[in-house]
Amino acid sequence: MTLATEVKKLTESKPFYAVAGVGDFAVEKLRELPEQLQKLQSRRYDLAKDLPVKAREYADKAEGIARELPEKARTYADTLTHKATEVYDEFATRGRRVVSKTTGEAALELEEVSVAAEPPVAEPVEPAKRPRTTRASGTGKAAKA
């Protein structure tokens, strides 16, 4: 199989588009990160002050959760499987849009470059007409002088 065939097969697969979608999502979230960090830094003193009270509350909740864990784990596993499938499909769709947009832009750029690099087309020139000559009679060999 040729390299072009392998690349085409890869780029037309759902996992390829899912990875492209994940990458696009990651870039989007990383761009939001500085703002979120700034907000958290401004709240860190309030969060630290409330920490002992919150720790006691979470310890009490953890005890109750531990008793219900086996049943909830099965429910969560079923929900997670369904949600993972949905997210995978969403990333694949997002990836298709990103790749389509990128390849469309690349195709337009390539077209512009190829038009700019294309040599001008010369108009066809009609061949010059030669006057008709008659053949000398004889054997067809050149006459000796």
Number of helices: 2
The SS-based structural class is mainly alpha
Shape: elongated
Largest sheet: none
Radius of gyration: 37 Å
Low-pLDDT runs of 5+ residues are: none
Distance between the termini: 70 Å
Give the mean pLDDT: 79
Indicate the proportion of strand residues. Answer: under 5%
Number of strand elements:
0
Q: What helical percentage do the residues reach? A: over 70%
Order of SSEs:
HH
Describe this structure in words.
This protein is mainly alpha-helical. The chain has two helices and no strands. It is elongated, with a radius of gyration of 37 Å. 4% of the residues are buried. The mean pLDDT is 79.
Q: What brief labels describe this structure?
A:
2 helices; 145 residues
Please write out the topology:
Elements (H helix, E strand, L loop, with lengths): L2 H9 L2 H104 L28
Summary, kept brief:
The chain is mostly helical. Helices cover 78% and strands 0% of the residues. It contains 2 helices and no strands.
